[in-house]
Amino acid sequence: MIKKLPFLLVIVSLLISCEAEEFDTTNFQSTGDTDTIDENIEGTDGTGGSDTLDPTGDDLSTCVAPKELTIAAITNETANLTWSLEEAELGEYSWEVRYSKKVSLNEETATILSADINNIMIDDLEPSTVYEVFVRTNCGAGNYSDWSNAIEITTL
Fold first, then answer.
1. What percent of the chain has pLDDT over 90?
2. Which CATH number fits domain 67-154: 2.60.40.10, 2.40.30.20, 1.10.10.10, 3.40.47.10?
3. Which of helix, strand or coil describes residue 87?
4. Per-residue exposure over 48-84, b if at least 16 CB sit within 10 Å of its own CB, e if not
5. Residue 96: exposed, middle, or buried by beta-carbon count in 10 A (0-12, 13-18, 19+)?
6. Distance of alpha carbon 84 from its chain centroid, rounded?
7. Residue 88: phi, psi to the nearest 5?
8. Over 50: is that where the pLDDT of 43 sits?
9. How far is CA 28 from CA 11, 22, 41, in A?
10. For 13-22, what is each residue's pLDDT tens digit?
11. Cβ contacts of residue 81 below 8 Å, gap of 6+?
12. Closest by alpha carbon to 120, among 145, 94, 142?
């Protein structure tokens, strides 16, 4: 037993020197048989439960859908599409433009184009045809914003 005493003293001193981890239990609710945790727990940025982190810890809240889609220079086969950018997006992201004939809103029949700036010429359109166009932001590492609201194009 005396030979084991120094080993036990080392173990006890290590246990005593370890800091206890503190847990915030203010959002913990016990209702007797079941325990729940309030989903509105403060995020790491101190703003409440608004953090949107993926499993890798990347903040996805900055990956926003483009706004204010505008069509110009419509011909019988082409249309020029532009959209507004958030300041944080300038030079950092790319975009995907999805368009299809309005009668076939099936994503499998849609054409998807890539854009490195907030302007793209959509070509190979059919004359006198209505198309719906959506844009989403590619934030990198497989992260995308939601698709924007649709805008309609009617070729000449």
1. 43
2. 2.60.40.10
3. helix
4. eeeeeeeeeeeeeebbbbbeebebeeeeeeebbbbbe
5. middle
6. 18
7. -65, -20
8. no
9. 33, 14, 10
10. 555 555 444 5
11. 69, 70, 71, 97, 119, 120, 121, 122, 133, 135, 151, 153
12. 94
Average pLDDT of the chain? 74
- Token readout for 38 is 């309030």
State residue 45's pLDDT score: 41
Write the DSSP symbol of residue 107. Answer: G
Tokens of 77: 């086969």
Amino acid at the residue 137: T
Domain coordinates of the chain in residue numbers?
Answer: 67-154
pLDDT at site 144: 94
At residue 122, does pLDDT exceed 80?
A: yes
Residue 75: C-alpha distances to residues 111, 121, 123, 143, 153 (Å): 18, 11, 9, 34, 10
Residue 131: CB atoms within 10 Å: 23
Given a cut of 90, whether residue 151 has pLDDT beyond it is yes
